[in-house]
What we know:
The protein is an all-beta fold. It is built from 2 helices and 42 strands. The protein has a 23-stranded mixed sheet that branches. The chain has a 7-stranded parallel sheet with strand order 12-15-18-21-24-26-28, with no helix packed on it. A 5-stranded mixed sheet has the order 5-4-3-8-9, with helices on one face. The radius of gyration is 34 Å and the shape is elongated.
Amino acid sequence: MADRYLDHGVYTYAATPTWGVPQEGDGTASTPAAASATCSVDLSGATFVSGSSQISVMGATALTVSGSANSATNVQYSATLTTMIDNIVTVINTLATATIVNRPAGWHNPQIRDAVFARRVGNSIELMTRSGSASWNGLTAITWANVTGASSGTWAGGSGGCWGWLFNGLAQGTIWPSAWAQGTYTSLGTPLAGLPSTADTTYAKADNQSISLNTGAARDITFRTNLCVDSTGLIWPSAAGKTLTILLPGGTGHNTQLNFLGTFDRLAVSATSKGGLIVRNSTVSSNHSITFTAQVGARGFAFRNVLFLDDSSGAFPLSSSAISFAANAGQTVTAVFSFLGGCEYRSTRAVSNIILFGYGNSGQQHLILMDDFDFTFPAASGIQLGLLPVGEQWSVRASNVRMTSPATFQLVRRGGMSFANRGFAQIDNVRGFDMRVVSSIGHQGAGGTGTAGLDRQFSILTNAGPDSAFRIEGNTHVVDWLPGNQYPSLDCTTPAGTPWSWRWGWSGDTNLWVCRPQTNVLRLNARSIAGNAARTITLELLVPPGLNLDTSLVSMRVAYEGPSGLAETDNAAPPFCGVTPVALAASSAAWDKGAYPTYEAVKLTLTTPTAVTGGSDMSIELVCSGPCPGGANSLFINPRVAVA
């Protein structure tokens, strides 16, 4: 584990470098590399033999002397020494495609022409490394076979420094003599020197740099190290208050895929201040997606203080296909963890936006955690968190999530997820969302006739504030409180003084009820009155007219402390136990019926068979057993539990 450093654009690339001046570093220092490693061999007494003389550069056989013209493996023989040296130099600088062998342990193996630049000075051949690094020093630079009068050469004088290319964004679209396409060379993947480890952290200077991948082509970019953008002057004082932007490529349907490799638990992309790293799409005509993929050995992603920005004006947004956090296609990842903290997703267009967690061929467990996350959209827009796992278990936890405009929000299951996919979503302390437009978080009413998982999937969504909006959703029912929906109320108010009740959205789809166990709808707490005695507990309900409910469908379960100190649990007429169901009694409670004027008041009661300890806590659960008769309906529950 080591710290690496990157100052994008600090070096200048040219096919013919200034002698001894590095065009790249090895990531070992925050300052630029000062000197290339060099080597000089006097060939005044050298004799070459056409067809048999060989020259090796950095351990790779680069050239064989022959009578043919220069090529990637041959150099044209000349009886004139200076011409012979010039021919060797030409092949090393432009044609030598063999990869280097003599390199520090664990380093990347670039082509000879990318790693080395050669020149002739008189009767000597001189070489320099294109990257600056002290690690080259002492390694063999050049050797000869079947060449008399020539000695081998060793690298010396090199000094390390920061990398200079996060992604190469040169206008001509090439870098190094082998002509890497724009955006394909990355210090975090396969640099010329100092191949990073997945346990390393690379600090990148912000400096208001904008690195364009606008090449009109899709890009697969491999990360082998954590990336932390210094936007507060942590490493470079001049970076304070600045940003680093990655601008997505242009061209219709061109997607950018960032691949995370290695055996580290997760690879992190972050900035030292919120929004210090920006991933931006500003195209006018493209349908883009950006995909972060975990491959074998990489078990997840961690993003902190990243701004995903779509300020484009074309027909499709950055995320019309998706921002995706996924296991790479065809690769098995047994567990994937995605963390997005202190991030923001901002769009300027009134279109649907999707963040897709799509785990293609991944394995069994998927955890998605969002904390301190901001969404900024036009009012007519919306955001979906899409789940596309193939494996057995998944979960989404989102907290401290804010929406700065009243756009819609959904958590949706995608791609044929069934009851076999067990999981839950918990989304709490959200602000700015109009939860009345969250018609479905993704579970209730899901189709299928599976035989497992009815109680293995659920979602919770809460909205902080004086009126405390809330929603919990399972396969078979929804319980929520959404201010502004004119829900009926009886005698309870929120901290803001708003009358309120719980709404129970009860599914009537028999496909969701492959068996009829009791399912917990809502749990409330109450305090027993003074004195040890049997108690009668009452829940007031408001139900659709003619629903004809009895205790085989709706019942109560109460847990309390008996006088002996033992915990007791009682059911009100539990089903399937030889107990004759009892119809819910009519109630005289005076509900304000709001938007449900035809609904009828009923009550559910239970008298404990044993005494309840005076002043002790009681837990009251409302449970249902099977689908709602007559189809899906809404019921309302008064939150106050009456104890007599």
